[in-house]
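User: Teach me something about this protein's shape.
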Amino acid sequence: MSGLIGKKIGMTQVFNAVGNRLGVTVIEAGPCPILTVKDKSIQLAFEKVKKESKIKKPVLGLFKKVNVPACKVIREFDKEKGKDYQVGQELKVDLFTAGDFVDVTGTSIGKGFQGGMKRWHWKGGKETHGSTSHRRVGSIGSTTTPGRVIRGHHMPGHMGAITVTIDNLRVEKVDLENNLLVIEGAVPGHKNAYVFVRKSKKKLAKAAVAALKPKVLPKAAAKKSVKK
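Assistant: First, the predicted structure itself:
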């Protein structure tokens, strides 16, 4: 199984084995019951609902069909090769161990309508000699060809509240008793926001490539082997 559904509890600080202080994010990950097993993926659920009336009837019917308590969040994850999964089986944080690298996906904090300087980090206009365009948009096109505003031009508008994935975050600690993951660094979303934690794809890909490459001896070792 490549990942779990979780909830961002908040941020704190821990000290590593060397004594360095690290900013970490605590995530409550799982337990996640399996709803559906497909050829290449499985469907997981997370966080039981207090009232079934808040769940749509077709979705509620799926939970009753597989005899799993109704949950708030449903998400699909890739299957790991060579492993068998059963409907109703619960997956927990023991999927990860300290030292693993993970990718965390969540919805960033919404910041409402913002100007271009905050939203796109514009440098800004002149601040002297009577200028009145310190933080304004300014020219956004020309009257010549093409004579219109180019699609995607950076403008003021709604900022945040988009899906963001942070890659290669290191797992510092796994609390099996409380279903907690302590991950170095920040993850997208506000407190109690839902996040999706997956095993790092880039790290796995690099490890696979490194395993296929032939081992190259250092120059000194290569010379010795030639002399022999």
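Now, about its shape. The first strand starts at residue 3 and ends at 15. The chain has two domains: 3-110+163-227, 111-159. If you'd like, I can walk through any region in more detail.
User: That's plenty for now, thanks!
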